Amino acid sequence: MKYLTAFLAAAALLGLAAPSLAQLPAPRYVKKAVFVRIHWDRSFYEYWGMNRKPKLTVDQINAQLTGYFDEVRADYLNNAALHNIDLILLNDFNRVTGPMADYVAPGSTNQQRRDNLLATMRSRLRTGNVNKTVPNGTTHLLGRTINWAFVYGDYYNQGEVDAIGAISSADGNAFISTSGGDGTAERPISEMIRAAVIETIEHETGHLVGGQHGGRNELADCPATHKEIMCSSGIPRDRRFGTANYNRVTGYMKFTLARCNSAFSSQNSCFNAVSTECSRILDYTQIQPCIDANVAANCQDICTTALKTARVVINSLPAKINDGTTVSAGAPGP
User: Which CATH class is domain 32-258?
Assistant: First the structure.
């Protein structure tokens, strides 16, 4: 890309009719979906269903969590700065008896509660590929599963993931607390406002798909005002990835979720388009460098017919999948 930029600048000085990347169809990457399973632990249920006034029923708690999901899904799906990631709720188990339901975080410190919670998520929650087999017998990769585990109380952090980019591993898990404070006189537990909960979910999901704390390495993404969603602190944050995190997430989305370029029908059609554009250069010595640079930028990872068909299958899926829709996503826990 640097070579092409230098070439185009030189061509302009020489009066050459050098084609730019914008004259070719921009790569349009097909994306798979990210399937979400939502869990709660006992601290979450005890607060919302037993200690809070008014108390919520199980159905009301589930509706609250679904509301969180709907808002986060809309932010990711409708925002190019968040990669238009398609989140689908995999509502295929009962949270009352789910793998995190009987977990009570032991330990007297926030750090111990956090460590125990992460260890429990790793041992009890499952992630992996989501597949669907169509009538002709072909099985398509639809995406990957991640887990959101909701807690109530101070678990050292407001939320945390097993690892950056964990969507590509067996530990694509995040926990989110809907409270602040540790219950002491200095830091009383309080119910977190909804907007802060939503931002925490979006922030931790950003980590799972490859985002990092912009404030540590990319200060330009986290100024005093106008902070991106991956900044380590500051409410409210903008619902966007900064440039560095956008590029990081591109890598995870492309390789973990089998993204592909659908701008051309085949790699040969892309080669032919590049050759046609570059052949317009008057200086024949610059034609091949033009072809090389444009092919590298525009002709990688062309969609196969199977991948395009899989995208149609994804578009036909509802935002929430219950027992009535058959997909192969593995068990939610042990």
Answer: alpha beta
